[in-house]
Amino acid sequence: MRALWVHHILQARRIRQAHRRRAFSRRVLRLGMGITLVVALSVVLLSLGLALGYAVLTADLPSIETLSALLAPNTGRLIQPTRLYDRSGTQVLAALDGGMGARRFRTVEPGSPEAFSPLLVQATLTLHQPDFWTSPGFAFSLDPTPKTLAERLVSDLLLWREPPSLRRALRMRLLAWQAVARFGHAQVLAAYLNSARFGPQIYGAEQAALRYLGKTATDLNPGEVALLLAALESPALNPLDTPEAALERQRQVLERLLKAGVIDSSTYNEARQHPPTLLPRREAPTTPEDAFVAQVQAALAATYPAEVLERGGLRLLTTLDRHLQAQLACALRVYFQNLAVGSEAEAASCAAARELPLLPTALLPPQPGALAGGAIIVDVNRGETLALVEMDAQGRYATALSRRPSGSLLTPFLALAAFARGMSPATLVWDIPAATTEAEVASAARYHGPERLRLALVGDDRAALDKVMAQLGAPTVVQTARALGLPLSEMEATTFLTQGAPLTLTEIAQAYLPFATLGLGYHVDGWPASQPLSVLRLEGSDGTLWLDGETPAVRPLISAQLAYLVHHILGDSEARRQRLENAEMLSLGRPAAVKVGQVEDGQTVWAVGYTPHYLVAVWVGYRAGETGAALSPSLAAGLWQGLMRYLHRDLPPQDWPTPPGITLLNVCDPSGLLPTADCPQVVREVFLSENLPTQYDTLYRRYAVNRETGRLATAFTPPELIEERVYMVLPPEAATWAAQAGLPLPPTQYDNIPSVPSNPQVHFSQPPPLVYLRGTVTVQGSATAADFAAYRVQVGEGLNPRTWVTLATGEAPVDEGVLATWDTTALPDGVYILRLTLVHRDQRVETALRQVTVDNTPPQVQVSLPRAGETLLRPTNGVVGLYAEASDTYGVHRLIWRLDGRVIGETFAPPYIRLWEAVRGEHTLEVIAEDLAGNRATSAEIHFTVR
Fold it and tell me: Is the backbone peptide bond immediately before 911 cis, with ω within 30 degrees of 0?
């Protein structure tokens, strides 16, 4: 029995152990399957990741076969240099070949008559890649800098568009490996030596040897090899531009070749003692197209590096019109000859020159031979440069555009910034001396005093424009100019109205173009926004179209309404006649807009103007390094006029349409406000429809004066001596100018006002004499006498009332007490006479008079800067100008500035400007205006942001 029990126990144990073994096996199996699945999934994901990574890496990867198309020995596209054509595509303007013409490709095959010098090949490999023949073509590195010759080759020819990055580094090494695998080491080396850069417009060792040494690259001595390798490593220090530096670099390369064992010491010494004979630099004759070609290259440089353009194989179809270019060059040449001799020395040589006006002798410069000038012609309807020439009075053409101080040529951009912030061409500005020094006072007569902004811009009235600049803030104006492509810096804001920024003809023309197109600009991918379009087509060395300028995109740069306001001023021939000498030189007999520019030192003058067809910009000034007497702006105006007349000789006159949102309105000159009966001159002005004036003119006011004394008439002035005169009311700071200019000012003294009551028993004590009052007024004084019978208080309108209204009567005497209460709220504003009559018992009467002015009308006030919702950029100095406009029939006493609910200051005289230390964030501004009677008006709240 015991044995049976033991048997059952052992059997159960075996069963449990077998069960555990089977369970363990199942767990192991499941774990194994899980691990296998994870590994399999990981392999799949890794494979997918690698495949995706490879796909991303090789996406749009250039074909390695492109190298063969570019560098085939006889048919490679890089054999032909890059050429620039005129707009017809038939005339070559320039070839970027260093004056060498078509290139010749050589091989590295030993013994071939077409092979590079073996020493050149050996030295190149020793210095740049000793393991070249065994290398797979790429280096095991993530550095984006090329390490092998194959990497340099594909980097220069295939990947030049891509910025440095890890992706580019991997793609470069992949292409380098493909190049060696596809073409072999020898062809890759030959391709590199045939395309490498040895200097500006010098590509390939063969061209370098011919240009620097006058010999081919098949048979070079060690010194010559070292010279070429030095130029290869430092193209800027080439034998043409820096011969001494090039020879010093050559000696350094010789030392490296000696240390590497490529040459022995005797060869080294021989090469040191007999340096290579360098060809002299050949100065090619300049052409009228040189500056244009240089401008095209500079404009393309941001997208297409110089190495890409100069390496060859490209075809540039430019916008240049060869006929217009020839006419422009001829006109400039004749123009300078005319300045020298004062007559039309060569007027018959071309049609454009025959349109040049004959300048008066008084305008001819004393040193005409020291002058230079330039002009650009732009097609307004396509934004294309049609002609561009710069030259000096000696007939030498510039090889690059010069930068000239632009001076007052930038004032239209000040106007644009002002119009965008609530001002208008009619806005009143003050052209008065900024200081009261003896010199300023003596010259005050040359200032214009109050004037519309329109006339200040046309006449370049610095004092007035300085005040506008102060109101807007120079950073705001600079930001506006930048939006139209002008490359201005913050530092140049300080000289914006004096010297202006140094600018080129193309930059000025492009910035003025939106005024001619009423706000539109032309955009082409790959072309800078600061330049008029000068390329119609750029065909790459691979035969594809890299830049398409034939169908530019048209986009608004500024609103048509703002552009029209500026254009309307530039096209105002009447304003030019009022303010500019020789304004007839800016007249074309057709609608046209033009601006002359002056620099403070008078060394450069400009004229920029346009019609709906053409825009022409010209400058005249002294050559670099020359100075002389200040030049007249008429020098530039005459040249501009002649070119424009030639361009429009067969075109019918055409005007610009007035865009919607523009309103013409009669205003009083010069306040720009609605005219009153006292306004002596009403003019037609142009406004944004949303920004029409609502206030009536307060600059001119009618005063009653004693014609004998010239003082303000009062109730005591004999009626027969009173006459009304209209005067201009000026702020205190304009008093000195007005006196110097002989402008009659309104009298400030009153006529015949008793200093003490004539009768202490019958007089007024309140209100004071000549006071401005409003609302309900308590009339106080005395009406008493020993035989007092009664008194009455009356009021009449005007200095000599015809009718009287009784305010109060009394049967008891009053001694320095209340005589009457006068409710003025329903009365018209104006002068009133209070009359107090005392009646004695014997019916004798005594009277007292008191003159006052009733004013129950609150002033008008609005915030002009900043505009509602505007975002201001906090300037460098942190100070922002807040600007308000206020007016009242009898005068504004003060303006109270309230920012974010807190009063930040008061202003007591126009212009109403408050300088504020700006704080970043959102703000609310309102202004309270108070007149002389105590009436108050609060402007609408303006919400703006500072960032």
Answer: yes
Q: Check if the beta carbon of residue 786 is closer than 8 Å to that of residue 837.
A: no
Model's pTM, two decimal places? 0.84
86 vs 870, residue with greater confidence = 86
Contact yes or no for 867/942 (Cβ under 8 A): yes
Please give the structure tokens belonging to residue 492: 């140049």
- Contacts (Cβ under 8 Å, ≥6 apart) of 454: 425, 426, 569, 572, 575, 685
Report how far apart the first and last C-alpha atoms of the chain are (Å, whole number). Answer: 102
Structure token pair of residue 776: 């309900």
Is 762-854's fold the same as 860-946's?
yes
Is there a contact between 522 and 535 (Cβ–Cβ < 8 Å)? no
* Cα 171 versus chain centre, distance: 40
Q: What is the pLDDT of residues 628-666, one digit of tens each?
A: 899 999 999 999 999 999 999 999 999 999 999 999 999
Q: For residue 83, what are the β-bridge partners?
A: 95, 315
Mean pLDDT is lowest, of 386-390, 717-721, 726-730, 814-818, for: 717-721
What pLDDT score was predicted for residue 2?
56
Does the domain at 860-946 match CATH 2.60.40.10? Answer given as: yes
Q: Which of 324, 318, 366 minimizes the C-alpha distance to 342?
A: 366
State which fold the 762-854 domain adopts.
Answer: Immunoglobulin-like (2.60.40)
* pLDDT score recorded for residue 573: 94
What amino acid is encoded at 338 in this protein? N
The whole-number average pLDDT for the span 74-89 is 92
Q: How far apart are CA 931 and CA 17, in angstroms?
A: 111
Domain extents for the chain? 1-59, 662-691, 700-741, 762-854, 860-946
Q: How far apart are CA 144 and CA 870, in angstroms?
A: 45
In the predicted structure, residue 40 carries a pLDDT above the cut 70:
no
